[in-house]
Design a protein that fits this description.
By secondary structure, the chain is of the alpha+beta class. It is about 55% helix and about 20% strand. Helix 1 packs antiparallel against helix 2, helix 3 packs parallel to helix 4 and helix 4 runs antiparallel to helix 7. The longest helix is centred in the first third of the chain and has 37 residues. The radius of gyration is 19 Å and the shape is globular. The chain starts with 6 loop residues before the first helix and ends with a strand. The structure holds adenosine-5'-triphosphate and magnesium ion.
Length: about 230
C-alpha cells in the first residue's frame, strides 16, 4: 500500500506539487531576470537577492519533502520491519537537530529509556524528526522542545512537547492534510511546505500506532504517539 494509494489522490498530489514548485520558481526567475537586464536599481538588488534566496530555500525544503514521500513509498513496499529501540532513534534525531535549535536560541531536551518498537527504522527516524522540527520551527526565542520515549506494559510512548505558538482548535484537525499550513507567511519564512505531518500520519498508520494531540495557542503543543497494543 502506497502513501498516495489511489490514482485520484496521486493526480491531486501531482497538481498540488506542480503548483507549489511553480510559485517560488516564478519569483526566482522573475527577479533574476530583472537583475540580469539591469532593470534593478542598486537598492533593489539586495531585496531581490533576498527574495531569490528565500524562495530557493523554499524549493529545497519542498524537494526534500517530496523525496521523503517517495522514499516512504519504497520503504512501505519493501517495508523492513524489525525490533528497534525508539529511544536510540530519538537520541540520533535530537543530535541531528541540536544545531538548528541552538541557532534559533531554543533548548532541546531528551528523556526516557530504552523502549522497543516493531517498526521501520527510516520511518521512525522521519517521524521523530518531523515532530521535533515542528517544535523548533513553531516556537519563540528561548523556547523548549521536550522529547520523551517511555514504555509501560507492552506499549511504547513517544511524546514531543513544545512551549511554542500552539495551534487553535479550528486548525488542529487540518494540519495533517498535505500542504496545509496555519500561517502561510510564517511557514514561508521558515521554509515549511506542509508535508511533514502528512508524512507523520502515514507513518503512524503504517505502524498501527495511535496519535494524540493537545495544543493551546500561546502555550504550546504536545503530540503523543503510542505503539503496540
Ligand atoms: P514541512 O513539510 O517542512 O514539515 P510544515 O512544518 O509547514 O512544513 P507540517 O509539519 O505538516 O508542515 O505542519 C503543518 C502546519 O501545522 C504548520 O505549517 C504549522 O502551521 C502547524 N504546526 C505543526 N506543528 C506545530 C507545532 N508544534 N506548533 C504550532 N504549529 C504547528
Ligand atoms: Mg513540519
Amino acid at each position: 500500500e502506497n502513501i498516495i494509494h489511489n490514482s485520484k489522490l496521486r493526480q491531486e498530489f501531482t497538481a498540488n506539487v506542480t503548483h507549489e514548485l511553480k510559485t517560488p520558481l516564478t519569483v526566482i526567475s522573475g527577479y533574476s531576470e530583472l537583475i540580469e537586464n539591469g532593470m534593478a536599481g542598486q537598492e533593489d538588488v539586495q531585496r531581490f537577492a533576498k527574495e531569490i534566496h528565500r524562495n530557493s530555500n523554499r524549493l529545497l525544503s519542498l524537494i526534500n519533502d517530496i523525496l521523503q514521500l517517495s522514499e516512504m513509498d519504497v520503504a512501505t513496499n519493501t517495508s523492513s520491519m524489525e525490533q528497534i529501540d525508539l529511544y536510540e532513534i530519538a537520541t540520533n534525531v535530537v543530535n541531528m537537530l541540536e544545531l538548528k535549535a541552538e541557532k534559533h536560541k531554543m533548548m532541546l531536551h531528551l528523556s526516557g529509556e530504552k523502549s522497543m518498537v516493531f517498526g521501520n527504522r527510516m520511518m521512525l527516524e522521519e517521524l521523530i524528526y518531523n515532530l521535533t522540527d515542528n517544535g523548533i520551527r513553531y516556537n519563540n526565542v528561548g523556547g523548549n522542545v521536550w522529547v520523551n520515549v517511555n514504555h509501560k506494559d507492552n506499549h511504547t510512548i513517544l511524546t514531543v512537547k513544545d512551549d511554542g505558538i500552539g495551534i487553535s482548535t479550528e486548525h488542529q484537525n487540518r494540519i495533517f492534510e498535505r500542504f496545509y499550513r496555519v500561517d502561510k507567511s510564517r511557514s514561508k519564512l521558515t521554509g515549511g511546505t506542509g508535508l511533514g505531518l502528512a508524512i507523520v500520519k502515514h507513518i503512524v498508520e503504517h505502524h498501527e500506532a495511535s496519535l494524540h494531540m493537545t495544543s493551546e495557542v500561546g502555550e504550546g503543543t504536545t503530540i503523543q504517539i503510542e505503539f503496540g497494543k
